[in-house]
Design goal:
GH, cellulose degradation, beta-glucosidase activity, two-stranded antiparallel ribbon, alpha/beta, 16 helices, TIM Barrel, EC 3.2.1.21, polysaccharide degradation
Length: 443
């Protein structure tokens, strides 16, 4: 049975991970440009990355060859506004206009993410996500991008994974800006959510095409041990627990989609509430869809075992050491829709694999094909049971800069030789092309 009609089959990237041209045509450094030394494997950086900035037309043609219906990409804030606010860099905007034009000409729907972790370093020097002015800075940035691109862009995501750029970065110190500062969680939470809400207002009020607006989150999803109702409810309860604070789903999604947080969440921060009534209204502006990035089901302790509930002796893992748990994507979209009442768009899913060009000049990645096949079968089950799933966006279109892992992890459907920038479609790209052509009926 195929997926729903008009299902959005796509792939994704993020600006810093693919663009390169870090100091060209008016772009100023972001936090990853400046702060990566000593924190990234081999001190790798995104200065050149995949050189998508210069090679985007070639990359769009590869997308067309793969039959993609959508391409999700992010905007580099410092390429558009070199000082974070103020004067607009027209050359930076022209790159994104040209990219959008090329996508539309190729019959590919552009999906824009405004922020995917690459904060301008000049704003970080002013406090970054801890500065109470950043919601207004972000709204100004959103206005510039929406004014420039919304004549051809309909799909918008404000922010990608605050669990990572706040939780992993500010609270734990593993990603830029590498702070390891737990006290930053409250101000960062407030500012990120207010920035999101203000950007939604900008998109709604200024977009030239009727916009579809969402927010791309992630977080721990737990799968029940069986279909027994009590098992399902137990998995739902732990999935929407705020115990993990910044790394959980409800920490960010409850305020946005429900206009509230659990009383215990505010108490964990030592406050009676996170926002004033007026701020709550701003944070919880209505959205059109739930964007969700899903890779693995989380595990719970198992009595008498050293393995959590999502693993066992010799259980399959990706090159990131993440367990392969396809059933989790079913529970993710089901739980999210049931709690928040909106359709779900899988904005990221994929696997890192030790890919390389083989003697025949091709890149054979049967593990990735099997991985995606399993996850899509589980996603299709959710669709068949009535969960409104809008689409599936593979992460990532091409191998790229994998943050603190540098270039040592390959998630792409397209292999990139970083020495030459040679692109090679992997077997999984051809397989995905055929899945798209059949709307998943051939799975």
């Amino acid at each position: 049975m195929p997926f729903p009609k008009d299902f959005l089959w796509g792939a994704a990237t993020a600006a810093y991970q693919v663009e390169g041209a870090w100091d060209q045509d008016g772009r100023t450094p972001c936090i990853w440009d400046v702060l990566h030394p000593g924190h990234v494997r081999f001190d790798d950086n995104g200065f050149e990355a995949c050189d998508h900035y210069h090679r985007f037309r070639e990359d769009v043609q590869l997308m067309k060859q793969m039959g993609l219906k959508t391409y999700r990409f992010s905007i580099s804030w410092s390429r558009v506004l070199p000082q974070g606010v103020g004067p607009v860099n027209e050359k930076g905007l022209e790159f994104y206009r040209s990219l959008v034009d090329a996508l539309v000409e190729a019959g590919i729907e552009p999906m824009v993410t405004l922020f995917h972790w690459d904060l301008p370093h000049c704003l970080y020097e002013q406090g970054g996500w801890l500065n109470p002015n950043i919601p207004d800075w972000f709204a100004e940035y959103a206005r510039v991008v929406v004014d420039a691109l919304s004549d051809k862009v309909r799909w918008w995501m404000t922010i990608n994974e605050p669990q990572c750029f706040v939780g992993i970065s500010y609270v734990k110190g593993e990603h830029a800006p590498f702070l390891d500062q737990p006290s930053s969680l409250l101000p960062a939470t407030r500012n990120v959510l207010l920035a999101h809400g203000k950007a939604v207002d900008v998109i709604r009020s200024r977009a030239k095409l009727a916009p579809k607006v969402g927010f791309a989150s992630t977080g721990a999803v737990f799968a029940p041990g069986s279909r027994e109702p009590e098992q399902i409810e137990a998995a739902r309860a732990v999935t929407f627990s705020n115990e993990r604070q910044a790394f959980s789903i409800p920490w960010w999604c409850d305020p946005i989609y429900l206009g509230r947080c659990e009383p215990g969440a505010a108490a964990q921060m030592g406050v009676t509430d996170l926002f004033t009534p007026e701020e709550w209204e701003q944070v919880s502006r209505p959205l059109d869809f739930i964007g969700f990035n899903f890779y693995q089901t989380e595990g719970l302790p198992v009595e008498g075992s050293h393995y959590p509930s999502n693993a066992w002796t010799g259980s399959p893992i990706t090159n990131m050491d993440w367990p392969i748990t396809p059933e989790g994507i079913y529970w993710a979209v089901r739980f999210l829709h049931e709690r928040y009442g909106l359709p779900v768009l899988i904005t990221e899913n994929g696997m890192a694999n030790p890919d390389f060009v083989m003697l025949d000049g091709q890149v054979h990645d049967p593990q990735r094909i099997d991985y995606v096949h399993r996850y899509l079968l589980a996603l299709r089950t959710a669709c068949e049971e009535g969960v409104p799933v809008l689409g599936y966006t593979y992460w990532s279109l091409m191998d790229n800069y994998e943050w603190a892992w540098g270039y040592s992890r390959r998630f792409g459907l397209i292999h990139v030789d970083y020495r030459t920038q040679q692109r090679t479609l992997k077997d999984s790209a051809y397989w995905y092309r055929d899945v798209i052509a059949s709307n998943g009926e051939n799975l």
